[in-house]
Amino acid sequence: MSKARSSPIRSSLIHLALISYTLIALFPVFLTLVNSLKSRNAIFRDPMALPTPKTFSLIGYETVLSQGDFLGYFQNSMIVTVVSIALVLLFGAMAAFALSEYRFRGNMMMGLYLALGIMIPIRLGTVAILQGMVATGLVNTLTALVLVYTAQGLPLAIFILSEFMRTVSDDLKSAGRIDGLSEYAIFFRLVLPLVRPAMATVAVFTMIPIWNDLWFPLILAPGEETKTITLGAQMFIGQYVTNWNAVLSALSLAILPVLVLYVIFSRQLIRGITSGAVK
């Protein structure tokens, strides 16, 4: 009887905690979107209020699209993010397949070594990375950002995908080998389709820190032609005067790709997370 009573209470507390966390997480997004549609005076007068016909203004978006090359910054961020995610998924899946499928000396140590990349922030090597980019002439290029973000995302991708690939049936792969499929064909035609939820999870977890990053674009690619959207938004923040309408509008536009990606891959993302939790 006590267990039956405690179960609804426990469920209610869990839902209350999840709803509270959701509201806290969405509050800054809501505040940014709402205030990007208001005049400067209305932002400071009552930042929590919704736009009204009197306070509604698109001056921030007009400023963002007219000053600087915001569309170019958006394009740079999109190129860096898409290419980095593609490389992380490709090389991460290949490495995960090798670690999960083949048994060789040092297999476990290799997995632990790659897992260290999750625990050690890549920013600790900023000086060495900058020196390497200067030596190779890659400063102020999008290639420098792609290389750094690919290295940053591989450890987590390998860790997640290797766990999923261990659950793929050995009989399926053995049948493929009997039918004459090469290891590449087994990987691309048999294994990858079965781990699509995990790859969607990796893609989302990889995209968010890349899209929101300011550190490496500021250090490796601060040039006007290579600025990303987060770095481009800084042009509206001055030492003495900050154009908050433009800043909030730029941030609102920067949020859109992340929301679109979540809407498209939300089902696969949830499937990947819940499957990983069961494992």
UniProtKB/TrEMBL annotation:
Q: Which InterPro entries match?
A: BP-dep_ABC_trans_perm, MetI-like, MetI-like_sf
Which example biological process does GO assign this protein? transmembrane transport
Quote the Pfam families the UniProt record gives: BPD_transp_1
SUPFAM superfamilies given in the database record:
MetI-like
Where does it reside?
Cell membrane
Identify the PROSITE patterns for this entry.
ABC_TM1
Residue ranges of domain ABC transmembrane type-1 in the record: 74-265
Give the transmembrane ranges.
12-31, 78-99, 111-130, 142-165, 186-211, 244-265
Classify the protein's membrane topology as the record does.
Multi-pass membrane protein
Could you tell me the keywords of this UniProt record?
Cell membrane, Membrane, Transmembrane, Transmembrane helix, Transport
Q: What is its main location?
A: membrane
Cellular component GO terms, alphabetically?
A: plasma membrane
Q: What is the similarity comment for this entry?
A: Belongs to the binding-protein-dependent transport system permease family.
Full protein name: Sugar ABC transporter permease
Q: Which organism is it from?
A: Pseudorhizobium pelagicum
Q: What taxonomic ancestry is recorded?
A: Bacteria, Pseudomonadati, Pseudomonadota, Alphaproteobacteria, Hyphomicrobiales
